[in-house]
Amino acid sequence: MSTTQLLFSGFGGQGILFAGKFMAYKGLIDNKQVSWLPSYGPEMRGGTASCSVIISDTPVGSPIVSKPDILIAMNLPSFDRYESAVLPGGMIFSDSTLIERETDRKDITEYRIPATQLASDNGFPTLANMIIVGKILSVMDDFGAESVDAALKKVISAKHADMLEVNLKAMKLGAEYKG
Amino acid sequence: MVVFDKPHALADVPMHYCPGCTHGIVHRLVAEVIDELGIEGKTIGIAPVGCSVMAYDYFNCDMIEAAHGRAPAVATGVKRSDPENHIVFTYQGDGDLASIGMAETVHAAARNENITVIFINNAIYGMTGGQMAPTSLPGQVTQTSPYGRDVSLCGYPIRVCEMLSQLEGPEYLERVTVNSVKAVKNAKKAIKKAFMNQVEGKGFSLVEVLSSCPTNWGLTPQKALKWIDEKMIPYYPLGVYKDRSAKEETK
Amino acid sequence: MSEKVLMKGNEAIAEAAILAGCRHYFGYPITPQTEIAAYMAKKMPKIGGTFLQAESEIAAINMVYGVSSTGKRVMTSSSSPGISLKSEGLSYLAGADLPALVVNVQRGGPGLGGIQPSQSDYFQATRGSGHGDYHMIVLAPASVQEMAELTVKGFELADKYRMTTMILADGTMGQMMEPVALDIEVKPMPEKPWAVTGTKMSRPHNIINSLFLSPDKLEQMNFERYERYAAIEKNEALYEEYMMEDAEICIAAFGIAARVSKNAINEARKEGIKVGLIRPITLWPFPKAPFENALKTVKEFISVELSMGQMIEDVRLSIDCRVPVTLCNRVGGMIPSPEQVLDAIRNAAKNGGNR
């Protein structure tokens, strides 16, 4: 019986909502109870973006994640805003290309991945989000699961099927990153 | 030999209109056209709020009573629910069509919604007892413009056909009157065309009928008919303001 | 059960409406419900339906009035300020006894307010919203699955009783994604001999109308409508009970507030506090019976709302104010946290019903 609450945060355009949706779909395919809730605002592009994802063995109550087990921070404002909200024993996955400082907290684990840099170096500059997702999955020892493939197919529409492989590549890069 | 008969589409009930009011004439013309086109069984009429609010009792086709000004929106729904099998007309006064319902009128026209609109312009609110309408003439005395319509305070009358003719959307716009035998014949021709356009799928057709309101104008029926000639037609010239198909044919 | 898909609440409403046979949608863009219009704009042309972006909410509800007059299933959706504009049409739909489905994905008010979730249109929805004596059936989903199921049910109830059903959701329910199964049973639509579809010259004309100048007649129409409402109150109230068997404290909450409250209840139960939840699913008719029944053990009710306290009045009426009913709320687009609700529960437990 467990519940994992994830909070994805960053700039609009970084694929925050997409990464969250992937994790939610993976949970669904793994027969978990899931919810995904985006922040929504008047800004269409470039504002802050965040989404709450809950993956649980029991029905999801509130879909709002205010105290995450896992925080994904892809820019400094998000890191500053949510760092203190992470539950003791929780984890932060941060994009170290854009976030220079590390957390001071001793009761949580931070994984720093230069995701934006890695994405850019490898020719898929828009997939920093999936590099971080790869890292999360490897930390949770879940990277090789069949549901990863299946979930990707769900979130990438048939029209963009050519994006499947490169997304997997980005995730693999993140999973294998030792920092 | 029958020389004069009541159209089938007109219900055999007493109407509530005042003596000398031209609503009755226009009702009859609409009913004659529905008979002649043989469309009564598929026609759905939409009554407004205003003097013709109870028009739903006066036509034998299916009828709807709409909220004030909303008849074109209701007509849009009815038409779109079964475009092949519904012939839809609205029957609206000047307050309904050109004041509270102006947005619905303009947008139905802009969409070239395939409906027929019969627009009674008598330059006054009749049902509520003679208040200023969006089409009341400059200087016209009404209950709410007791010193005459002062355009510096309440603006100018709206010429609906002229205004709508600036839109790309509508198919057919014509202004007629019914204050003489000749005018009535001409009005019937326009109304028939407005229904035919719908049958042929051509789109939004509006006939503006300059009408009399002897009661609220404070005139006898005869003088009211004359007032149309003397006061209304100079401000609201009769004629065709748009006829897209005719224009295309002459090209 | 069919395969579950992840869907936004707004999209689930749109897809369920299509499933229920709705082929006509009229709307006007407003956050946070625009996904419904976008979904319909994409789908309707492909299935021979009508999507039309109206010039205003007022026009949209009157287009609904037009289609409904012809007997077909039809809907519109909006958010709080837009529902105010539709309220004229809602009154006319009631006066003409026309069925329709109207969705309100609420946002904070009054005025232009904000765009974040709210439940502050409870009075507007449950008290009719427009002028005159009338009700709408008001359904309050608390999950994406319910967004879909209650949409189908909403159409069925609207047709059965010839009235508007309103889905009263909020920004959270509209925007969140959850797994949803769309194998929802749809009952056949009842005959509608009153509809205006053309007389075909084979019957007297039908008239759709809300004008009755004779007071006797208008009074009679109102009496008859309220007989129908009485039947609805008797037969159609829906609610969920959660941990109510031994509850001494009862939370009343609907929609997102109920979800948050469940988290708080689970925590409070760990502390040994006997607390449960009654979640009204129909807000009108308000499910009075479970509240009356709860009085056997409950010493205090807490109404958890995203409003300044609106449903709390119905909770008090349901129990004739026999025990205290307190309010736990956030407004303006804010949502009560589970901690806030837990504090309210602890506070109630401490007082033991003595206020």
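The CA atoms of residues 12 and 22 of chain B lie 18 Å apart.
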